[in-house]
Design brief:
This protein has 118 residues and is an alpha+beta fold. It has a domain of 62 residues: Herpes Virus-1. The chain is built from 3 helices and 5 strands. β4 and β5 form a beta hairpin. Keywords: Metal-binding, Zinc, Zinc-finger. It holds the Pfam family zf-RING_UBOX. This is Tripartite motif-containing protein 3.
Length: 118
């Protein structure tokens, strides 16, 4: 059973990470990529600042399912989402997009045996 779960988790992880425009990484309030994601007891996630602003103006209910937010203990950091966002950002900054040329060229000066990047 653990190997089946590991395989399923890896498949889900690959699917989430391979979708650059995935709404999985999008706050349902601001419709942008999550910043400091938090999760409610109902399992819906939001940017921390978006949720704070929403709660000040519209009360203490989940903006998605309208479940009541009983207290601050119902709001927790979404550590999994933070980690996935970190991995996604690391992946996106480590590769050059195919439609943009890599402008850096490494040149070696044979007489001085030094490398320059231009």
């Amino acid at each position: 059973l653990p190997s089946i779960l590991d395989t399923q988790n890896k498949t889900v992880h690959r699917a989430i990470m391979s979708s650059p425009e995935s709404s999985f990484f999008e706050c349902p309030i601001c419709l942008s990529t999550f910043q400091a994601p938090v999760m409610l007891a109902c399992q819906h996630s939001f940017c921390w600042k978006c949720l704070q602003k929403y709660m000040k103006s519209d009360g203490r209910m989940c903006p998605v399912c309208r479940e009541r937010i009983k207290g601050d203990s119902d709001i927790t950091r979404n550590l999994l989402l933070e980690q996935l966002l970190s991995e996604k950002n690391k992946d996106s900054t480590s590769s050059v997009p195919p439609d943009r040329p890599n402008n850096f060229v490494r040149q070696t000066n044979e007489s001085t045996k030094t490398d320059t990047i231009t």
